[in-house]
Amino acid sequence: MRNTDETERRWFYGGGVHDWLVTAADSGGSFLLFEDSMERGKRTPLHTHPVDETMYVPDGELTMHLDGVEHVVSAGGVVIAPRGVPHAFLVTSETARVLWLHTPGSCEAFYREASEPLSDTTPRVVDFDRIRAAALTAGGIDIIGPPPFAD
Fold first, then answer.
1. 9 bridge partner residues
2. Are 141 and 85 in contact (CB under 8 A)?
3. Does domain 4-145 fall into CATH 2.60.120.10?
């Protein structure tokens, strides 16, 4: 059991604050669950994961690029990116929160390598070079192209 004030908070170098709700160790490796708080313009490169990724959007709006097709996902919406399927997203509302469920929980090493503990002094700088480096060293994600969204 973990209450909101007990979560580990991390700044993700791709932009956004992660609140770790259930780690892979907590679930015996069966899943990973974290909330991501992001701002307008946050985007990801086109990528795949070796796990199934479910995204529930309790607040905000995203454009989700999934297997070559773009979808708008509004508050209350959900998206499933099956393992190996290319996807990316762009935050289109002022802010957005996404609850991420990875099954199994084997991508945690990537997210940890691509983030740092959040404090009042943590510089919130987006650094895709660190994201690419984390992907190469920790695995859990294969970056296959730049963000597929028009500027």
1. 19
2. no
3. yes
Closest CA to 79 of 90, 61, 66: 66
Measured CA to CA in angstroms, residue 74 lies from 11, 38, 39, 131 at distances of: 24, 14, 15, 26
Residue 1 predicted with pLDDT over 80: no
CB atoms within 10 A of CB 69: 8
Residue-wise DSSP of 68-96: TEEEEEETTEEEEE-TT--EEEEE-SSEE
* Local structure of residue 43 (DSSP, 8 states): B
The whole-model pTM stands at: 0.93
Give the CA dihedral 82, 87, 90, 93, nearest 10 degrees: -20
* Cβ contact 127:16 at 8 Å: no
Element (H, E) at 130: helix 128-138
Q: Say if CB 102 and CB 93 are below 8 A apart.
A: no
Give pLDDT tens digits for 44-103. 999 999 999 999 999 999 999 999 999 999 999 999 999 999 999 999 999 999 999 999
Interatomic CA distance for residues 118 and 38, integer angstroms: 14
